[in-house]
UniProtKB/TrEMBL annotation:
The lineage of its organism: Bacteria, Pseudomonadati, Pseudomonadota, Gammaproteobacteria, Pseudomonadales. This is phosphomannomutase. It is an enzyme of class 5 (isomerase). Residues 426-556, 572-668, 673-781 form the Alpha-D-phosphohexomutase alpha/beta/alpha domain. Its cofactor is Mg(2+).
Length: 876
C-alpha cells in the first residue's frame, strides 16, 4: 500500500482543530507508569541478589568448610578401621596357613582323610569356624562329607590355592548368612600335596568393627565387589550421611564408614544473613533512588521530544532541544531528517502542480480546492528514504485483500511428496521382515529409514549406528536405509557387515543408544528385515506400527545428517575376552551356518583358549549347507556329526545374525535353550540371590523350579527379543532367555541378546567342571518334549486362528495362559500354540512326563485347532 498526503482543505474553509485521541494518550501514560516501576524492580533484583549471595556463602563457603572438617574426621576414622580389619584378615590367613603346616594335617592327608573328617580338629581355633576341608592335590570335588555343602565358589578358591599360595579371604552368602573362606596349600617340601579350605562365619570379622560405634561414633561395614556388584558382608554401629571407603588387602574388598555425628558449624545462617543482608539492603535503596532520578530525566526528555516534533510536523520552524539521554537525542535526529525529507517532497509536488493547473485553465477546469497531482503523489518514494511502500501489492499474500471471486477465504496449496507403497504385513511384532523384491526393495527401505529418522528426531535422538548381515541383499538395503535416515538430519555411524550383537554393543560404546540392523536373522535367503533401536528401546508392537503410519502420511523430518565409518569388532571381542575366563581348554565345534557370525565366533572362542573346529563359517548369503536356524533339529545334524567325529567337548551353533545360540553336548545330544537357561540361571543366581530370571512361553515348565531352587524368581513372558528386553528393563532381571536361543545377560554384560557372549559364558562354566558337558546337563530335570513345530497358515489368518483358539478352545482340566498365544498346563505336561511374528506359521510345542501324556496333549491341541481352522493341515 502507498501512504499519500491528505487533500488540502477547500479555499476559505477553516480546518477543524485536531482532536486528541484519548486512547493514544492513555497508552503513553501507561507506558510511563511501567517505566516508573523499573526502579522498584531493580531494587528488588538487588534484594534477591543479596538473598542469593547469602545462600551462596552459606552453601559454598560455610557448609563446605564444615563438610571438610567432617570429611577429615571421617577419613581418620576410616583409616583406623581399615587398619584393624586388615590386621584381622592377616590373623585369619596366618591361622589357616599355620593349620595347613601342622604335621597332623599332613598325616591325615597321607592316611586318605579328606573333607571335614580329619584331625586335628579345627573347631577350637576360632568359635566362628564353620567347616574345615582338606583336599589331596588335584582331587577337589564338591561332593564332600559333612553338613556344609560345597559350591562352585568354594571349589574355585581351593583350586586356586593348589598353585602354592594362600588365597582369600573371600566372602559368599548362603541361606541369608554370609561366610568367609580362606584356602592354603599343604606343602611337602617344595611340592604342594594338598589344600586346606577353612570356612568361617562372617562374624569372625566383627571384633575389628566394634570400635566403630564405641570410639568413632559411626557405622562400619565390610563390602565385597564381584562382577561389578557390591554387597555388604558384615556391618556394625549406626551412622548417617555419605560413606567413606577404603580398599582392604583382599582384592575387591572395601571398608565403608559412615559418621554418626556432624561437626558444629562455624557460623549460623542468621548471623550470615545480618552480615551480608544489611549492606545489600542499603545498596538496594541507593539503586532505587538513582533509578528514580534517571526516570525523571527520561520523562523530561520524552516530553521535550513530543513538543518539538508536533511543532516541526505542524509546519513551524523550531530548533531541536538539548536532551540528557543519548537515545532520545538519536530519535530526535531521525525525526528531524524525516521532517526535512517531507518538506522536500511537498515542495517538489507543488512545483509539478503549477504547469498542470495552467494547462487545465485552457481546457477543462481543475477541481476546486486543490490539484490532483498533489493528492496522488506518493509521500515517500525517494531512494534515500525508508521504503514504506514495501507492502504495496502484497495484500493478497497477507490475506488482507479481496480475491478474484470476492470472497475472503484463502486457498491452501498442498505440496505432494512422492509416496511409496509399503505392505502392512512387513511390520511385525518386534521388527520389520519381508521378502526381497516383493515386499522389500530399496524404495521401501529408504522410506522406512525416513520414518525411523523422523521418529528418532521426535524423541530427541539424532545419532544412529548401522550394520547389516551377510545376506546378498543386505548391503544394498543398508545403503538405502542409511540414505533415508540421513535425509531426516540424523547422523549415521556405519559399522559394515557385523553380527547383530556387535551393533547393539556399538550403541553402548558410541553412546548413541540407537541403531538399525539389516538382517533376515534365521529366515531363508529371500527374506530380509530391519531390527530397530531408538534411545535404548528396541521397537516393538505399536512403535513398529507407528513407522507405517508415518510412511502413509509422509510425516518425515528433513535435513542432512553426517556419515562416518567405524570398525568396532576388535573392541567387541576384547571386551568379551576381558570379561570371561575359560579355566580348562575345550575342544569346540562351531557351526555358523554360513551366517555373519562365522567370522567373529571362531575367533572369539579361540581367543578364550579353546581349540576351534569351524563348520560352515564362511559367510555366504545363499546358505548353501543349511538354514542358519539352530532351533531346527535338522539344521543341527551336521554339528552333531562333527562333534562325534572330532570327539569335541561341546558343539556351538549360531543363527544368521549371531544373536541366537544352539548347543550340542559331547555325546551329540541337543541341549535346547530352556535347559541351557537352567545352567545359566544357577550360575547367575549363585552370585545374585533373589535375582529375577525371565523365560518365554515356549520354555519347559521345569525351568521355573530350577530357578526357584537356586534362589531366583522365575517370570514367564512373551516371545520376542524386543519384548523380552523391555520386560528386563521393567523388572531389573539379570538374565533372560527364549526357547529360540536368544539369551540376554544383564550380569556383567549389557542386557541384549548375544549368541557369541552367551557361548563364552557357557564355556566359562564348563571350564571349571570336572565332568563332561553331557553329565553337567544330565543333572537337570528333563521331560519328553518336541522341538518347535510349525503349521503353515496365511499371514492374514494366523493371529485370528490363535484368537479363536483362545476364546472357544476346550482344553479340559488344563490351566490356560494367554500371555502369548495359548498355553495349556496339565499336571503331567503342557502344550502351546502361538502365531509366529516373523513367518506365516503357527508355532507349537509340547512336553510331558511320558509318551502317552505327550500324545494325549497333542491330541487335544490337534482337535481344537481343527475346530478353529478346518482348512489348515494339522499333521503333528
Amino acid at each position: 500500500m502507498t501512504f499519500r498526503k491528505k487533500k488540502a482543505a477547500e479555499a476559505g474553509e477553516e480546518s477543524p482543530a485536531p482532536k486528541k485521541k484519548p486512547s493514544t494518550g492513555q497508552k503513553k501514560s501507561r507506558s510511563l507508569r511501567h517505566l516508573g516501576s523499573l526502579a522498584l524492580s531493580q531494587a528488588g533484583v538487588v534484594v534477591l541478589g543479596g538473598a542469593a549471595a547469602i545462600a551462596l556463602v552459606l552453601f559454598l563457603v560455610l557448609q563446605p568448610a564444615q563438610k571438610s572438617q567432617q570429611s577429615e574426621r571421617e577419613a581418620m576414622a576410616a583409616d583406623t578401621l581399615a587398619d584393624r580389619v586388615n590386621q584381622r584378615i592377616a590373623i585369619l590367613r596366618d591361622l589357616v596357613s599355620g593349620y595347613a603346616a601342622q604335621p597332623a594335617v599332613m598325616a591325615s592327608l597321607r592316611s586318605g582323610g579328606e573333607g571335614d573328617r580329619m584331625t586335628p580338629s579345627s573347631a577350637g581355633l576360632l568359635p566362628q569356624t564353620r567347616a574345615t576341608f582338606v583336599f589331596p592335590d588335584n582331587r577337589i570335588r564338591r561332593d564332600q562329607p559333612g553338613d556344609f555343602q560345597l559350591s562352585f565358589v568354594n571349589v574355585d578358591l581351593a583350586r586356586r590355592a593348589e598353585r602354592g599360595k594362600i588365597v582369600g579371604p573371600d566372602a559368599f552368602p548362603r541361606d541369608g548368612t554370609w561366610f568367609v573362606q580362606v584356602a592354603a596349600p599343604i606343602r611337602s617340601g617344595d611340592d604342594v600335596a594338598g589344600t586346606v579350605l577353612m570356612v568361617f562365619e562372617a562374624s569372625v570379622l566383627r571384633p575389628a568393627l566394634t570400635h566403630a560405634d564405641a570410639e568413632l561414633d559411626g557405622r562400619a561395614s565390610i563390602q565385597q565387589t564381584v562382577n561389578g556388584q557390591t554387597r555388604a558382608v558384615i556391618a556394625a554401629g549406626s551412622g548417617q550421611g555419605e560413606s567413606v571407603s577404603r580398599d582392604l588387602s583382599p582384592s575387591g574388598w572395601t571398608l565403608s564408614y559412615q559418621s554418626g555425628g556432624t561437626v558444629a558449624p562455624v557460623a549460623g545462617p542468621v548471623a550470615m544473613a545480618l552480615v551480608i543482608g544489611v549492606p545489600l539492603l542499603v545498596t538496594a535503596i541507593v539503586v532505587w533512588l538513582l533509578l528514580n532520578r534517571a526516570q525523571s530525566g527520561l520523562r523530561r526528555d520524552v516530553a521535550l521530544l513530543l513538543q518539538w516534533s508536533h511543532k516541526v510536523f505542524g509546519g513551524e520552524r523550531a530548533k531541536m532541544p538539548t536532551f540528557r539521554w543519548e537515545m532520545v537525542g538519536s530519535v530526535g535526529e531521525a525525526l528531524q531528517r524525516l521532517s526535512q525529507a517531507v518538506d522536500k517532497r511537498i515542495s517538489r509536488a507543488e512545483a509539478n502542480a503549477r504547469p498542470a493547473a495552467a494547462k487545465g485553465g485552457k481546457g477543462k477546469a481543475a477541481p476546486a480546492g486543490g490539484d490532483s497531482s498533489a493528492t496522488d503523489e506518493p509521500l515517500f518514494s525517494d531512494s534515500d528514504m525508508p521504503d514504506i511502500d514495501m507492502l504495496d501489492g502484497d495484500d493478497d499474500v497477507l490475506g488482507i485483500g479481496e480475491s478474484d471471486s470476492g470472497s475472503g477465504d484463502l486457498d491452501v496449496v498442498e505440496s505432494s511428496a512422492p509416496s511409496v507403497s509399503v505392505a502392512p504385513e512387513i511390520f511385525r511384532a518386534y521388527d520389520i521382515r519381508g521378502i526381497v523384491g516383493d515386499t522389500l526393495n530399496d524404495n521401501v527401505v529408504r522410506a522406512i529409514g525416513q520414518a525411523i529418522g523422523s521418529e528418532a528426531r521426535a524423541r530427541g535422538v539424532s545419532d544412529f549406528c548401522l550394520g547389516y548381515d551377510g545376506r546378498d541383499s543386505s548391503p544394498g538395503l543398508a545403503a538405502a536405509l542409511g540414505e533415508g535416515i540421513l535425509s531426516t538430519g540424523c547422523n549415521l555411524i556405519e559399522l559394515g557387515a557385523v553380527p547383530t550383537p556387535v551393533l547393539y554393543f556399538a550403541t553402548h560404546e558410541f553412546h548413541t543408544g540407537s541403531g538399525v540392523m539389516v538382517t533376515g536373522s534365521h529366515n531363508p535367503p529371500e527374506y530380509n528385515g530391519i531390527k530397530i533401536m531408538i534411545g535404548g528401546d528396541t521397537l516393538s508392537g505399536e512403535a513398529i506400527q507407528k513407522l507405517k503410519t508415518r510412511i502413509d502420511a509422509q510425516d518425515f523430518e528433513s535435513g542432512q545428517g553426517e556419515r562416518s565409518q567405524e570398525d568396532i569388532r576388535r573392541t567387541y571381542l576384547d571386551r568379551i575376552v576381558d570379561d570371561t575366563a575359560v579355566a580348562a581348554p575345550l575342544r569346540v565345534v562351531v557351526d555358523a551356518g554360513n551366517g555373519i557370525a562365522g567370522e567373529l565366533g571362531p575367533m572369539l572362542i579361540e581367543e578364550l583358549g579353546c581349540e576351534v573346529i569351524p563348520l560352515f563359517c564362511d559367510v555366504d548369503g545363499s546358505f548353501p549347507n543349511h538354514h542358519p536356524d539352530p532351533g531346527k533339529p535338522d539344521n543341527l545334524q551336521p554339528l552333531i556329526d562333527k562333534v562325534a567325529e572330532t570327539k569335541a567337548d561341546i558343539g556351538i551353533a549360531f543363527d544368521g545374525d549371531g544373536d541366537r545360540l544352539g548347543v550340542v553336548s559331547n555325546t551329540g545330544r541337543i541341549v535346547w535353550p530352556d535347559r541351557l537357561m537352567m545352567l545359566f540361571a544357577r550360575d547367575v543366581v549363585s552370585r545374585n540371590p533373589g535375582a529375577d530370571v525371565l523365560y518365554d512361553v515356549k520354555c519347559t515348565r521345569r525351568l521355573a523350579g530350577v530357578i526357584s531352587e537356586a534362589g531366583g524368581r522365575p517370570i514367564m513372558w512373551k516371545t520376542g527379543h524386543s519384548l523380552m528386553k523391555a520386560k528386563m528393563r521393567e523388572t531389573g532381571a539379570l538374565l533372560a532367555g527364549e526357547m529360540s536361543g536368544h539369551i540376554f545377560f544383564k550380569e556383567r554384560w549389557y542386557g541384549f541378546d548375544d549368541g557369541l557372549y552367551s557361548a563364552a559364558r557357557l564355556l566359562e562354566i564348563l571350564g571349571i567342571e570336572d565332568r563332561d558337558s553331557d553329565e553337567v546337563f544330565a543333572e537337570f530335570p528333563e521331560d519328553i518334549s518336541t522341538p518347535e513345530l510349525n503349521v503353515p497358515v496365511s499371514e492374514d489368518t494366523k493371529f485370528g486362528i490363535v484368537e479363536t483358539l483362545s476364546e472357544s478352545g476346550d482344553f479340559g482340566d488344563g490351566s490356560v495362559s494367554g500371555i502369548d498365544g495359548v498355553r495349556a498346563d496339565y499336571p503331567d505336561g503342557w502344550g502351546l500354540c502361538r502365531a509366529s511374528n516373523t513367518t506365516p506359521v503357527l508355532v507349537l510345542r509340547f512336553e510331558a512326563e511320558t509318551d502317552e501324556a505327550l500324545a494325549r496333549i497333542q491330541g487335544v491341541f490337534r482337535e481344537q485347532l481343527q475346530k478353529a481352522a478346518p482348512d489348515i493341515a494339522v499333521d503333528f
